[in-house]
Amino acid sequence: MRVVLAEDLHLLREGLVHLLRAHGLDVVAAVESGPELLEALVTERPDIAVVDVRLPPTFTDEGLQASLTARKRVPGLPVLVLSQHVEQLYARELLADGSGGIGYLLKDRVFNGEQFIDAVRRVAAGGTAMDPEVIAKLLASNARNEPVGRLTPREREVLELMAEGRSNAAIGQRLYLSESAVGKHTANIFAKLGLVPSDDDNRRVLAVLAFLNEK
Amino acid sequence: MTIRALVRGAALFCVALLGQMVAFVALIGVLASAVLGMVFLFPPVVRLLRRTTRLSRRLSHAWSGVEIDEPYLPEPGPPVPLSDGWYRDGRSLYRTPRIPAFNRRMNWLLKDSATWRDFGFLWADMWAGGLLAGAPAILVALGVFQLAGGNPIGLLWPVLALGAARWYAPWAVHAHGVIARVMLGPTEKARLAQQVSRLARARTDVVDSQAAELRRIERDLHDGAQARLVAVGMTIGAAEELMESDPVAAKALLAKARDASSTALRELRQLVRGIHPPVLAERGLADAIRALALDTPLRTRVTVELPGRLDAPLESAAYFAVSELLTNAVRHSGATEAWIDISSQGTKLRITVTDDGHGGADASHGTGLAGIERRLGAFDGVLALNSPMGGPTTAVIELPRALQTVRGRPPVTWRTVTMGICWSLCWIPIFPQGFVAMILKLVGIEEKSWFLALHLPEPFQWPTIIGMILLGAGMLATAATLSAQQRKDKDLACA
User: Fold this and answer.
1) Could you tell me if A172 and A91 lie in one domain?
2) Where does the record place the Response regulatory domain (chain A) (predicted)?
3) Which residue of B has its CA nearest to A61?
4) Which terminus of chain B has a lower count of CB atoms within 10 Å, N or C?
5) What is the pLDDT of residues B326-351, one digit of tens each?
6) Average pLDDT over residues A177-200
7) Which domain holds residue A185?
């Protein structure tokens, strides 16, 4: 799998390259600024881009902007955005085109190499990887939302993991449930939220995120 | 329109008349306190003066459309006792603060040039602006008086006054305001004094809160992230030692170290959010407020109309103010919806936060709102809170000069003075010396009165009359041009 990496801190960039290569991923470009990133994304057409939000030269949201521009030119280009802080606003902008292949994680998530690589692969396959903190914020701002309030605690747990972008199997593993039990929960959640159920994992996640983003 | 202006002009003349009487009373009071030593009369006299001129200021704002700021020096604070409980005033010591406080007040009133300008205004108002504004009404009254006396020429005055009223009356009412501003507005010195005292207060507040903020950050770092990093280091050290002998335990320790570093990061993130939210740095005020709105459980609508980014300190003050207002709405108001509107008018930034809660918020309770006011105060910003019982609550934040730093136009300059003189005196050459003399000459009345042209030998009479009218018109034109120029400058400064 071919990866383009953008991170301005040398130490962190080297660490990430090392981590990705150790898991058999091919880092074709490791850049350190917004313009370089855009150039690399458009010419290399990688299977996934791993991008830090804040990049030179402006040190604002250069990375995010470059990713969004690249996705306009190369529709569906999978992008995993890393940041020191997560904002619903950015998550919304990333998800806006509704085509999936989006990841948005806190930088500390790279501490757990296995899970991080799992997220990279999921996004590269067109799936979604949202940071638990984004989901927690989404749910908190939906706290007074009628249908969300009617979910049972267990259903909420399932919803959280589903919104992060995990498959039924992964959710079951996490919560020590059988896959069919998770399936039942998800069916209930979809019924309570008034969403049309879908067998396709990715489409299911996007529906849930769109619902939570509606506030 | 014309009738309203006529009535207002007459009312302004009446106010000027009242002011004249107040001026008489004040003169007696001032003489009594200065000559007879009845100093206790002075403060009430000044209070009376100020109340009367305040009325004129209000009227000129409401009727003439000329805003006049209060020019007075800031009131002195109460006297502070010495360490032994006595009060010092000059070379004397007093047991109670009464006399030092009175002396301070006396000094404050006596030395404020605005006191004496008020006094001067009340004397002059009737003869300058008041007469100008009230001229049509006076002419009508004169005509009625003469008609009642059986003099048919009396019919001329009301006809003349009402005929010209359409152009004259609105202009005269405005002119009254302009003249009043010259005498009642703050001088540059008073304006600076007011600004200095406001800035001194704001600086103290800012320095205090900045110091408190730094102390809080230091404590948070010391007890939080710093302590956790020490723990991480120690845990890694322990793991290193166990690596050979007990790899399983070492692995567990390393996992613990990783968790501790995650916690440290989370704490740092929260701390950073409290110092300067990253989204504010990355996107500016508009998007930061949008992000804030997304994070609250209220259904929040945000409308932003801003030409560009603001200065970072200002952005941050505005952001934290909105954040605090939203937090209050969530915690105390029981609201389900909120509206945030950010807009700019000239250089002024205005933020309105409204919620549909049950209201009853009070800025004097709780430290949150006081904190906002302090923070905004550093930028001359103000917070106005309107929260009736039963709601809704509306908070308006106004930050002047937020969008561009422009120095305020000095209120009294040669231009303003020339303009005031032209506005106030141009009627003399036009009307009495011009038109009235012309009418007297045409009708052939022998009365010469104070009309210059009629005292001259015959061949010079007509040229003088026409010259007078031209002079008056010229003064009027100068005044109008200067007014327009001033308005344009002001608009430019605001753009």
Assistant:
1) no
2) 2-122
3) B282
4) N
5) 998 888 888 889 999 999 888 889 99
6) 87
7) 135-213
- CB-closest option in A61, A112, A142 to B282: A61
Which pLDDT score, from 0 to 100, does residue B332 have? Answer: 86
- Tell me the whole-structure pTM to 2 decimals: 0.67
Q: B268 Cβ partners below 8 Å, 6+ apart? A: B224, B225
Query: Residue B436 to residues B127, B427, B455: CA-CA distances in angstroms?
Result: 19, 11, 14
Provide the domain count of chain A.
2
**How confident is the model at residue B406, as a pLDDT?**
44
- Which residues fall within 8 angstroms of residue B457, CB to CB, at 6 or more apart? none
Is the predicted pLDDT of residue B87 greater than 80, yes or no?
A: yes
- Residue of A85, A107, A144 lying closest to B278 (CB–CB): A85
Residue-wise pLDDT tens digits, B445-463: 877 788 888 888 877 787 7
Question: Could you count the other beta carbons within 10 Å of the beta carbon of residue A71?
Answer: 21
| Contacts of residue B164, Cβ cutoff 8 Å, sequence gap at least 6 | B136
Q: Does B331 touch chain A (CB under 8 A)?
A: no
Whether residue A62 sits in one domain with residue A12: yes
Indicate if the pLDDT at residue B152 is higher than 70: yes
Highest mean pLDDT out of A17-26, B7-16, B28-37, B101-110: A17-26
Question: Which of B186, B189, B175, B184 lies closest to B55 in space, CA to CA?
Answer: B184
3-state SS, residue B415: helix
CB atoms B265 and A143 under 8 Å: no
Contact call for B336 and A142, based on CB within 8 A:
no
Q: CA–CA separation, A70 vs A45, rounded Å?
A: 10
CB atoms within 10 A of CB B28: 12
| Closest Cα in chain B to A84 | B269
Which 8-state DSSP code applies to residue B354?
E
